[in-house]
Amino acid sequence: MAVARELTAFQKNILTVLAEQPRYGLAIKRELESYYDDEVNHGRLYPNLDDLVSEGFVEKSALDKRTNEYALTDAGMEAVKDDLTWSLEHFVTDSERAELVDAIVDEA
């Protein structure tokens, strides 16, 4: 997991968006823009998506000739869970954390 922990916050946010469901690039862009309340330009999004694909956290497939879909791999889901677990360690008790992680894993 050392590599997953070296991801940028922006890359982790992309993984979080994809944890809900696979999406095409513009849908990821819209979700991130909603979160950041600011424009996310293509020159930032797509190189980061390509890096996540190269690192094995995301898989890319063609929806049609012009549109790619991105989905989390097992390593990507583990990266999301690892980041969430680490964050929760700093904000909740052990019993609360176990309940939250179990609930998240059950939904995934």
TrEMBL record:
Residues in Transcription regulator PadR N-terminal domain copies = 14-81
Entries under SUPFAM superfamilies matching the protein: Winged helix' DNA-binding domain
Q: Which InterPro entries match?
A: Tscrpt_reg_PadR_N, WH-like_DNA-bd_sf, WH_DNA-bd_sf
Designated name of the protein? PadR family transcriptional regulator
Species the sequence originates in:
Halodesulfurarchaeum formicicum
